[in-house]
Structures are given as structure tokens and as C-alpha cells.
Amino acid sequence: MTPQTRTAFGAVGLVVTMGALSFAAVPFYDWFCRVTGFGGTTMVADGSTVVPSDEFVTVRFAATLDRDMPWTFRPVETQMRVRLGETNLAFFEAHNPTDQPVAGQATFNVVPYAAGGYFDKIQCFCFTEQVLQPGETVQMPVSFYVDPAMLDDPEGKFVHEITLGYTFYEIELPEEEAHAALDSGVGGALTADAPASID
């Protein structure tokens, strides 16, 4: 094998490796943040042992899309005043304007970072992948509370506003959904909006 050939194979291998790493970067970072709370990532809890306090905080909601994600995505309510320790329910709306089924996965974080470890989710659409059919619109819930323990944190006790943000990325369509789309001949004209559903 000539030096030029070895160099060519090495370059191809580098490109393949970098592509694989970039594909895994989003789910790996999401997993890392969920485990460590890094970057203001929220915690997951059931809220069964939390005693509500008399303090309140304003929670703002933000929604963004990866540049390759064709959906539209927005919070139904842009903000909510919540009592610390009390369970709340918010909704985000997503719409697939294309003529193909599209699968997505949401990553999330909290600003300021000092509040990330005290923002607890009980149930969230971001825990699982979401598949929207052509023309479909859905409202997706997130159930959460802000832990009153934040008041005992040297930085958290000064937090009066929290922003919960989501970013949706397109992911590979699940195999069963891909087969169903092929069997039904999806790919023609846009369908009418489907009734709103909760995943």
C-alpha cells in the first residue's frame, strides 16, 4: 500500500469517526446533563414528598428548533407564576407541515443554572421520542415543580425568574413508523391537521 493510499484511508476513517461522534453528541450530552445537572439541566422526580412553601417564582417557557428540524414548535403559555413545591402543568405545541412523518427528540435546560438542580420534572414529552404524521399538530405536556430547597441555596434563594427551554432535533424515524408510512403511501399532498393529542 502506497503512502498516498494509506493517507486516503486515514482521511476516510477520520471523516466516518467524526460523523459518528457528531450523531451521538446530542443524546450523549442530554444524558450527561440529566445525570449530573450540568448546564442547568432539570432533575426528574415524582413530587410525592415535597411540601409547598409560601414563596412564588415566575417560570418562562422557550422553544427552539435545530436548523434541520422542519416542525414548528412553541409554548402554549409563555410564562407561569408558580408556588414553590406545587405541581404544575404546561403545554408545548408542535406541528409537522411536511408531507412525511417526522420523528423528533427534545433536549432541555434551565436558566439560570442555579435553579437547574431544583427544577424537577414529573412527566415530560422530552422523556421519549415524538413522531408527528403529515400535517399533524399536537400539544405535549410537561408536569413539574420547583423544589422549595432552592430557598436554602446561597445562589438559588435570589432566583425569582426561571426559563425552561426546549430544542427539538430531528431523529431517525422508528422502524415501525417508517414501514407504516411506506404501506400507507404517505408522501403525497398535505393532510388536514389531526386532532390535538397528548403523548
Main traits of this protein?
199 residues; alpha+beta; Ctag/Cox11 (Pfam 04442); 2 domains; five-stranded mixed β-sheet; 10 strands; disordered C terminus
Describe the SSE topology.
Layout: H1 3-36, E1 43-44, E2 56-65, E3 72-75, E4 79-83, E5 88-95, E6 102-111, H2 113-116, E7 119-124, E8 130-132, E9 137-146, E10 161-171, H3 175-184
Parallel strand pairs: 1-7, 2-10
Antiparallel strand pairs: 2-4, 3-5, 5-9, 6-8, 6-10, 7-9
Radius of gyration, Cα only, in angstroms? 21 Å
Which strand order do you get reading across the main beta sheet? 1-7-9-5-3
Topology pattern, helix = H, strand = E: HEEEEEEHEEEEH
The CATH superfamily name of the largest domain is: Ctag/Cox11
Integer tally of domains:
2
Descriptive account of the structure:
- The chain contains 3 helices and 10 strands, in the order H-E-E-E-E-E-E-H-E-E-E-E-H.
- With 199 residues, the chain is α+β, with helices and mostly antiparallel strands.
- 24% of the residues are buried.
